[in-house]
Amino acid sequence: MVKERRKHLQQTISKRYAKDIKSADVWSVFKVVADFVQGFEELEELGPSVTIFGGAKVEKNSKYYQDAMHLSDILASKGFSIITGGGPGIMEAANRGAYRHKEQVDSVGLNIDLPHEQVPNAYTTKECTFDYFFSRKVMLVKYSLSYVIFPGGFGTLDELFEALTLIQTKKVTGVRLFLVGEAYFAPLLEFIRNSVLHEKMIDEEDMELITLSDDFDFIVSEIETSLHEQMEALKADGLEHTQYYKTLACFCKKRECDE
Asked: How many angstroms separate the CA atoms of 90 and 103, rounded?
């Protein structure tokens, strides 16, 4: 039964890509542009945000689901909008935690058009559906101060290493990356240290790009610190006149007044 379902899904995907390949290249370009335009229009005025990644297959009674919902609840209560891939599992949990504060922050779901798994969850205040993974990935990381990675499968690991590469190559600055699920991710970090670092494929300082912690108070505190670090990075690049910088500055000023 499982094999038949998998075969059907593969045939569906193959037909779709065959159709795309046969389409004129210029029309594919328009679809790509449409993806980006949609994302920019929806998110350009988004305030300070945190992107939470994690597996779509995680069940509601899972500790990871409950932890993701709890962490996003804390972050949203402090004024941070939450961005996810918009689907079930960890994505739903994170949106659900933020949705409790929907009058103060946005709960954003950036979905992908897939023949399975990616059903939009019901806890978003803003949502977009993308045709292409790469345009969706840009939007998932572009507007965030920090990336929080919960346990997940190939897609989550892909997003983890994509985000790490962006930080390592300084394509994004002032951004922090956290792994939640110490028992789950410890073997991965051991592999990176004992094989990747040992073979000199990365530098020792690259290991410092990853923070593994299940301490939510610590993570929230570090994310709040990264807000100021990102503002300094934007200012150093001469971007203090951009709308994004102004939005962050307004957020900080409001928090100071509230305190």
From this structure: 22
